[in-house]
């Protein structure tokens, strides 16, 4: 196995009585786009800040490229951080902002300029060097912040909700750009987000955080198709949970099970050999490209069924409200969560 770019070994961080990070082990490979995903207060930012050196672990070690950096100051670590608020200098033009880190490192003027221009080109802002940050849009400011971090050619780039301030459309564009940029530069990206779609779009692997612990580390497809706990199943995508009596009646087994909404079929789509159940459509939610049918099963629980809106007729979909239906699914799409689900250790203080 090659040396990981970042490794956390049994890291805990307490702030007084709050355990923000609770015995976390992580290995992030060289060149990987790695996301830390979780609800507010689950410890993602604290982990990022410990990798950057802004925060000291209470116990455990932080390793970068095989070296123990736990006691090293932020500037003595080969990492750069991009923050949500960009933290650009308003009195400097864009080029001076990007050059700043190299000036501090006393890189000669000509080389500084060349590298800063190349970094601006890489984020498609080659023509914007003489503008002030206030003369840029939010997305352009975000790109400058990226260029300013990339110009130092760090081994690891840490990104703390960098797209959080952008509107949804721009955010989606930037997600694809960021992923492409990461492929081109080959730098390890460690990305913090609470947006599951964002994490699925960009990441090679994702660590799902809950209450300061890592619940599961996996590729986006593994996380979605094979979540190891009910929490992960519910946080990454929509999860239909069947447990207790409902599981016994519908699945025919003891345990806790999940079925994704797009894997549930309705009425005539239910094939021979599928597991099926009867229920009533209590609501239909129109979402443009898809409809969500909310089906209350006779056995108790409510399932969400997702169907693509292929025919453009909302009347037909809406007309199903109140109807009795059969739902069904192939056994291979039943995710068994039995035995993996833990109770929260403590509640976040926020
Ligand atoms: P968010 O998505 O809201 O940024 P997060 O998952 O990044 O959340 P953290 O910021 O790492 O979570 O916080 C984890 C826990 O540690 C929270 O309960 C938070 O209130 C607490 N915490 C973080 N920093 C400090 C601090 N400097 N002093 C006291 N408590 C803190």
Kindly name the structural category: alpha+beta
Strand order of the largest sheet: 6-7-8-3-9-10
Principal-axes shape call: globular
Helix and strand string, N-terminal first?
A: EEEHEEEHHHEHEHEEHHEHEEEEEHEE
Quote the CATH topology of the largest domain. Answer: Rossmann fold
What is the overall number of helices?
Answer: 10
Bound molecules: adenosine-5'-triphosphate
Which CATH first-tier class of the largest domain would you pick? Alpha Beta
Give me the CATH architecture of the largest domain, please.
3-Layer(aba) Sandwich
Question: What keywords describe this structure?
Answer:
350 residues, six-stranded mixed beta sheet, five-stranded antiparallel beta sheet, 2 domains, alpha+beta, Rossmann fold
Walk me through this protein's architecture:
The protein is α+β, with helices and mostly antiparallel strands and 350 residues long. The chain has two domains: 6-233, P-loop containing nucleotide triphosphate hydrolases (Rossmann fold, 3-Layer(aba) Sandwich), CATH 3.40.50.300; 238-336, RNA polymerase II/Efflux pump adaptor protein, barrel-sandwich hybrid domain (OB fold (Dihydrolipoamide Acetyltransferase, E2P)), CATH 2.40.50. Helix content is 28%, strand content 30%. The protein contains ten helices and 18 strands. The strands form four sheets. It has a six-stranded mixed sheet, with helices on both faces. The chain has a five-stranded antiparallel sheet with strand order 13-17-14-15-16. A hairpin with a 2-residue loop joins strand 1 and strand 2. Helix 2 crosses helix 3 and helix 3 (109-122) packs across helix 4. The longest helix has 18 residues, at 168-185. The protein is globular, with a radius of gyration of 24 Å. Mean pLDDT is 90; it is low at 343-350. Adenosine-5'-triphosphate binds at residues 15, 18, 20, 38, 40-46, 194, 348-350.
